[in-house]
TrEMBL record:
Every Ketoreductase domain range: 7-199
GO terms of molecular function: oxidoreductase activity
Keywords from the UniProt entry: Oxidoreductase
CDD domains xref list: 17beta-HSD-like_SDR_c
The keyword DNA repair is assigned to this record: no
A Pfam family of this chain: adh_short
Species per Swiss-Prot/TrEMBL record: Rhizobium leguminosarum bv. viciae
Name of protein: Oxidoreductase
Superkingdom of origin organism: Bacteria
Family listed: Belongs to the short-chain dehydrogenases/reductases (SDR) family.
Lineage summary: Bacteria, Pseudomonadati, Pseudomonadota, Alphaproteobacteria, Hyphomicrobiales
Amino acid sequence: MSKKERGIALVTGASSGIGLVTAKALLRDGYRVFGTSRKPMADTADGITMLVCDVIDDQSVQSVVDEVLKRTGRIDLLVNNAGIGLLGGAEESTTAQAKAVFDVNVFGTMRMTNAVLPVMRRQRSGRIINLSSILGLIPAPFNALYAATKHAIEGYSESLDHEVRTQGIRVVLVEPGVTRTSFEENITRPDRPLAVYDAVRADAEKLMREIVSKGDAPEVVAATVVKAANAPSPKRRYTAGKAAGQVRFIRRFLPESFVDKSLRKFNKLPD
């Protein structure tokens, strides 16, 4: 396909933030883009078709895939971006809350992927890009459950890529660092807060606000997604932004004791 006709892209969680910016970047690059949101939204002024989809609902997921197929007959690119955060001590969340986070971040990705794989297999071509995070590579104090979902996405995506590669399908990870998006937009607080964590949780939230304000623009992540989408022979993972690349290098090549000490220093935790 020419640059002006890249194919059909479906981007989840495209109502705002990274998802919306990514959808716009793919549109500029020549894709016909469908974005999803949990609530009805008008199509964007520049031509992104918005469809309703709740990734925690099997029927909703299948319906959105069926609608895209009805309109276009194919899906060339799926970007699994929909996700939620959770800030608090791991102990402060009930298993019900933990399951809810996994239902969006992990099982939502799996639902969308399972729905498009038969389509891509019939086409003998397709690419799935899963939004991970540098927190899928390192420990994340007071983000343990969120980090756990991203660690899960890492293992799932890399394994699935090996399974479907002979079918003409590739599965790729994009790992953003800290990105400037609305902090309140997708963060959840623990459902059983404990007094023992009040002070350190407040410090962790303050630190997160500070680093988010200084983070990469969403356009950095969007550009990486476009790169991963169009690479003739894609890598299994792409870091998005300088900081993400540095974290990946540190985690991969430096001693565990150094990583541990550096992480505690960064999070302003005592030795």
